[in-house]
User: Fold these one by one.
Assistant:
Number 1:
Amino acid sequence: MLVSGSLLVVAATVTALLWSLVPPEGLDDRSSRMIAGVALAALAGCSIACARAVPRVEGVRSLWLHPPVLLALWLNIALVVPAAISFADGDILHGRDAIAGLELGYSAFGVLAVLLMATALWFGYAVGLRVGPAGTRLRALGRKRGSPAWALCVYAAVVAASVARIQTGGIAYGALPGELGEFGVFQQWVIYFQDIGILVLCLAAARAFRRQWPLYPLAVLACGQILLGLGSGFMKPVFWASVTVLLAALDAGLRPARLIPAAVLFGLVGVVAVSMAETIRLHVDSGAYDTRNLGAVVTTTQSAAADSWAAGAKANWDATVDRFLFRQGMIAHTPGAIIMKTPNVFPFLGLREFLAIPAYVVPRAIWVGKPVASAGNRFAIDYLNAAPQTSSSAAVTLFGEGYMIFGWTGVAMVGLLHGMILGALLRKLGSAGLGFLLLALLPTFVDFESPFTSMTVALVQRLVVFLLASTVLLTPALGDGRVRRQYEESQQGRGTAGG
């Protein structure tokens, strides 16, 4: 079934490539828009076809735990929609320096690169699912229920680590650990520990929606993750905290209709987060406050929240939509800029990036002089016309780095390898009953804006950290039996009353 779905993607890819036999520089705008439109429609349609054809996997009861389904969903929301709008309405990105001189034909070919990667990813996923199931130790870990009280204690340590990170290196936006001297290594260890927050949240969501834990730990943890995200200067921490909770509910069997109120609430928080992040970034860029001063961080975050509230719902919504269409539209055209300049201006990277992945996996906290896996700053200067003195980075993208490695072959190779990794990951974690751990890795493996090397390194590092953290989280702790007995007694009481 999965292979038949993949064949649909192959057919769409081949059709689009045959249609575009004319070199990209020879395409007029009308033909470029037609090719891009067909490729985007094929990507959306074939994502649905492949999602409907995913096979049954031991321990996986829901479609929402299959990584390629989640990646395809995010790809369609965050790339297909804004790309279609940007090709239809050229005024959205008109005059932007990043795509100055970029011919529309190359942008259309960039969409074909996305379609080719999606094709290879589904094939790789079918191969990855053929690995063996989880071993005895992993299954034993998955059978443990854990304690809500212990999970809250671990999360309190995560919050303390987040505060320590702010006081040594500032909030996440604008933080440069490489300039912190002796605090740089400390920051790296703190970041690894801070990542555990999303794992604890996913564990609480998975247990609560299956009625193994009460709901109050989930409410506390969700609020904590969202509040930490609101003060970070980034929008994604708030977004992923919301999405993982909703996906855990769907995986537990809750009907989508029951989740509409929660989804609306999370959506409103997300709109506020965009407005707050913009305000916080303006303050950071202007040097208006010391981001290492916890009091100043709290005051600025409160001020940003007040400004967002004063602006009103319509202004915040319009700002969110404009930012989404502009930023994601730019990312949709990034592969075109790569195709135009590689290898005409910059040579292919070759296989050295793949071969260097094992070295990159070693934490920088251990290997202080480790080379940078992906220089987003250099990419912005070389490919997107950024000023040489800029400190900002640009999204290389999963498919963009594939082309930089070795053209169309590199794109297919990246998709195939990523699919194999995701298939093996689901096979092992799903059969062990560790679906919550897979959800905690969601922000890493669906982030197509990251290059393949950086994504793979982050995935391996977080998998190791999360497995170690899970052994601690699921270890019976003081008060575990008492809390469990109280909750089970309350559930039995409800059942008796209902009868």
Note: Confidence is low (pLDDT under 50) at residues 177-182.
Number 2:
Amino acid sequence: MRVALICVMLLAAGPVKGSEPWCSSACWSWSAANVALEASYAAAVVLDWRQTSEPGFKEAGVFRPLFADGQGRVDQTRMTAFMFGGAAIHAVISAILPRPYREVWQGVSLAVEAGNVARNFQVGARLVF
């Protein structure tokens, strides 16, 4: 778990300017708001992951077929790969998007993930580290 948290924090720190030749330099200029939004999204993913990795949690969301068995029980390996893989892909997309669209992408993504965390709380998922 510690390794996963460190990876998410590193991804949220933002890309290294000029590390990818296929993206213009405008893609790599992150503002403090961009970094804060990406870090907040990564934190929300970690919260969602901890809630859904609680023993007995039954996934009822739209991604249920991806990492739950027939009775809704969560397969921890699939769920972890899905959530942290998704966070990594999110960071890459954030890095590629130009500035006016990046904030929208990050803000909407954060709102959706925060909604997932809130919904998990409503159905009784606890947050235990």
Note: Residues 16-22 have pLDDT under 50 and may be disordered.
